[in-house]
Structure formats: C-alpha cells, structure tokens
Design goal:
It is a multi-pass membrane protein. This is Carbohydrate ABC transporter permease. InterPro entries: MetI-like, MetI-like_sf. This protein is mainly α. The chain is built from 15 helices and no strands. It folds into two domains: 56 residues, no CATH class; 215 residues, MetI-like fold (Orthogonal Bundle), CATH 1.10.3720.10. It starts with a helix and ends in a 6-residue tail after the last helix.
C-alpha cells in the first residue's frame, strides 16, 4: 500500500519527536555514566557534556572499597527477595479469597480494599503505628509493613476470577481442599500474572527508600538507596569515605555510586519488560 504525502510527513514528524524524547530520557543516565569515569576537575568545570573527559576509574575504586556500599547492597537484596516473597504470599491469599463469590461480605471487603486506593492514613499516623507496635529500626517493618499493594491485589483478584469454576469444582469432587485447589489448579494457570505481580513488587522493593530512611537508623540495616540518598541529596559521605584519600575524587564518587546502584535493575529490565507490558492487560479481558 502506497503511503500518501501526508502520511509520510506524519511518520517523519513522529520519528523526530520520539527520537528527541528517547534522547532526553537517555541522556541523564549517560551523563551520570560519563561523569563517573571522568576526572573531578572535568566534571566541576562542566567539560563533561556528551563524552567522558580524562578517563579514570578512581571513583569506582573508592566505591568498591567502601564497606557501607556492600552492606547496603546486601540489605537491598534481602529486602527485595524476602519482601517480594512475603508480598506474594499475602497478595495471593487475599486475591484468591476476594475472587470467590461465596465469600461472606465479599462486596464489603472489596469496597474497603478499593477505598485505600483513594485514601491512606498518611505519613505521621503510619509512623506512630509502627512506633506503637515497637517496630522502629527493625527489618520486619520493611518486610511486612509494606507487604501488600492494593492495586496488585485487585489485578490478581480479577485474573483469578477468570479461571473457570468448573475446574475447581472438578478438583473438589476428587477430594481437594481450598489449599490444594489454590496450589495445584489456580497458581499453575496464573504463572504469567504471578510473574508480573512479583516483578512489580521486586522493582518497588529495590527502588524503595523513603520508609527505610524514616524507620531505620542502624547503618547495618539501611538499604543502598538510603545510602545513595545521603550521598546525593544530603551530601553526607560516610566516615570511611572522608578518611580515605580516595574520596578526593570529589563528586564523581556520587555518580559512581548511582551507577553501581542502578546497574542490576537496568541489566535485568530488558528481559522482564514483556511482563510489564503484559501486566497492563492482565485482568482487563473476560475469558
């Protein structure tokens, strides 16, 4: 099919606009990367624009020698893995129960859960709640305190509702209980949905820093993102960095720390992007 002149102009303008948007989104990441491998003098004087200047790896050497970085990495991995498992366990149980029409008070429970999408307790009441439960400065507060996201529960509940009830009834006729139906019938049929929800939780856990910064005071418990916030926003280097001559690399160490923090999720994202796209459509169509 031959394209008209107007269509050619339209596509050309689209390509130009989208290319500019892509470059605008990509440039900050490239700048941080170039600055992290440039000399501090070149960064401070503004010589680093599109390419690194005076190539050096001193900033990364300083970062990898800093114990706080590795401690933060370990904590981030712990909160991501354990937190995601806890989130999936609670979300699956809640979504499965809410997907059953025979659940007493189902409409009320669904309404109360959906209500939290619009109205939340707020930061101060939430903090006071953690304090009253003696959960301040504990890993349990991060793992269980934010285990469930209402949006994910609703998505998974809708997906569970699309599974034919005849399959569950056949399993019950064979003597299967609710736990057996969930484990042997529902979950195997929901692998795509479970993968998507798990990735939503994992990415949120990896990037989360606000409540960890508020609730955790022990340096041995804070995740990497809190440490990064102190370096980038509050400009508070650790005592080891201040004592180490390698910290003389200046603000380039901040850029190097940013790269070290984002590389894992950036490396994994191309392989999991399809699940994020699929997550937009999960539960939107009735089978």
């Amino acid at each position: 099919m031959t394209e008209s002149r107007g269509e050619k102009i339209f596509y050309a303008v689209n390509y130009v606009v989208l290319s500019i948007c892509a470059l605008a989104a990509l440039y900050p990441f490239l700048y941080v990367l170039f600055a992290s491998i440039s000399s501090p003098e070149a960064v401070v004087t503004g010589e680093v624009v599109f390419l690194p200047q005076d190539l050096t790896w001193d900033a990364y050497a300083a970062v990898f020698k800093e114990q706080a970085i590795w401690t933060g990495y370990a904590n981030t991995v712990y909160y991501t893995v354990i937190g995601t498992l806890a989130s999936m366990a609670f979300t699956i149980c809640g979504a499965y129960a809410l997907s059953k029409r025979r659940l007493l008070g189902r409409k009320l429970f669904n309404m109360l859960i959906a209500f939290t999408l619009i109205f939340q307790a707020g930061m101060i009441p939430t903090y006071l709640n953690f304090r009253s439960m003696d959960m301040l400065d504990t890993r349990l507060a991060i793992v269980l305190g934010f285990a469930i996201t209402t949006f994910n529960v609703i998505i998974l509940r809708t997906f569970f509702q699309e599974i034919p009830e005849e399959m569950e009834e056949a399993a019950r006729m064979d003597g299967a209980g609710e736990a057996s139906v969930l484990w042997r019938i529902v979950l195997p049929l929901s692998r795509a949905a479970l993968a998507t929800i798990a990735l939503f939780y994992a990415v949120a856990r990896w990037n989360g820093y606000l409540w960890a910064m508020i609730l955790l005071k022990d340096p041995d418990k804070i995740p990497l993102q809190v440490l990064l916030n102190r370096l980038v926003v509050q400009m508070k280097p650790t005592d080891t960095m201040l004592a180490d001559s390698a910290f003389t690399v200046g603000e380039t160490i901040v850029y190097a720390t940013i790269i070290v923090a984002v590389v894992p999720i950036v490396a994994v994202y191309p392989f999991i992007q399809k699940y994020f796209v699929k997550g937009v459509m999960i539960g939107s169509l009735k089978g």
